[in-house]
Amino acid sequence: MNTVETFLAHIEKQPNGCWKWLGSITVYGYGQYTFEGKNWRAHRLSYHLFVTPLTGDEEEYICHACNNKWCVAPEHLVSGNASVNYHHAASVGRIPDKDQRFGRKQTEGKDLPKGIYYDPDRDNYRVSIRVKEKRYQAN
Ligand SMILES: [Zn+2]
Question: What are the sequence ranges of the domains in the chain?
Answer without folding.
Answer: 4-79, 81-138
